[in-house]
Amino acid sequence: MDVLTDILTNPVVAFIIVIGILILVHELGHLITAKAVDIEVPRFSIGFGPKLFGFKRGETEYVVSALPLGGYVKMAGMEELEMVEGESDSPRAQGQMPSPRHFDAKSLPARMLVISAGVIMNFLFAVIVFGMVGGIWGVPIDPPAVLGGVTEENLSEGTQSLLEVPRGTRIVSIGGDPVDDWGDVQRVVSMMRPGQNVIEFEGAAPVTVDVAGTDSARFQFFTALEPLLHGRARLQQVVADGPASRAGLQAGDFVVEADGRPVGSWQEFVAAVEARPGEPFDLVVERDGQRITMNVVPDTHELPGGHTYGRIGVQGSAADGASERERLGVIDAAGYGFERTWDVMVMTLDVLGGMFTGRHSARNLGGPIAIGQISGQVAEAGLESFLNFLALFSVNLAVLNLLPIPVLDGGQLVFLLYEGIRGKPPSMQARMRLTQIGFFIILLIMAFAIGNDLLRVFGI
Length: 460
What we know:
The protein is built from 13 helices and 18 strands. By secondary structure, it is of the alpha+beta class. Strands 4, 5, 6, 7, 8 and 9 form a six-stranded antiparallel beta sheet that branches. Strands 10, 11, 12, 13, 14 and 17 form a six-stranded antiparallel beta sheet that branches. α1 packs antiparallel against α10 and α5 packs antiparallel against α6. The longest helix has 30 residues. The relative contact order is 0.12.
């Protein structure tokens, strides 16, 4: 795992590996079904543009091309792909009759299956990977929707009323949507409507928060909410070169005491650190069954109102081993895989729809740089996080490929549906023209996404 982490922390390498795996999965779906219905496949390519290297087995040449922004399975009779390769060997172009093994010679259901197979493979890949994660590492057991505290620095203007809610208060609903556990809280906040939303509590007065209608604002608001976690405070991640790292703290340490006082929960530990900005104090941690005392000096942070608080650069939770997770059997893991894939698909569709309606900002669209950076971050967090990201991204690619844009699978399915309704396909000239327009649209979307990446890199 250390070798994988070292490789994937490079954003360029991380992007190529992640996108390469998912393109391979997608294009294998097209290849396998095309050969299953006896369609001739001259070329299978990972990437576009000039061939870097490859080999030939049977009638098919398997190649890796220069631009790792997609891939294709070239099927005989699909003239639309000639624009990708810049050459034409189609029978129509050469005045020949089409072969029975050409794409257009197959039945409409067979062609629709071949075109849909890439998306289906991406969905199945996500189901399998999510299921593997549930079977190997187990699934987190969401704590009840009880507010353990509020991270004040993550509260934007219009949300500070949450500071008035007592610790240990159960959240009943957010914006009218009922919540039972912390998973519900995350789901509802991620789809929170912009503007004022009422949060209702059990045994406490409701509060009204005003959250901007961007994904980043909703995410920041969610990170301000802390669940009430029972059990010992366990460090999950220690930031390099932070106060905790300099003091010798390590991921996996259990915090036992802070400044001579017992620590019974993660919230108690956070409160102890926040109360000592710039002041040294002793922490007692348990590591491998032994207690170790360390002196820590929290960094000082200041809120706009002048209030200061301490931070030592750690992330953690309340944990006592297996109580946080439930390892699933084969059947339950498969069900979990399907459930997680469905949830991600719904979330992706919600975000895409929100971009068209203005409910979500198009600035959230990420390109190769963002993918590479996220890949490196999740790889550093561990193999489980990396696999979860692969599965999530696989679902995203499947949904995006179903958009009705010619050159994408969704656009090809629109052509086939047109043929099924009219009884004849669109003319070759129309298909070629629409495919060229679709290719141009994809280039524009990619340029916009890369522009977003650059704006984020330079903090604009």
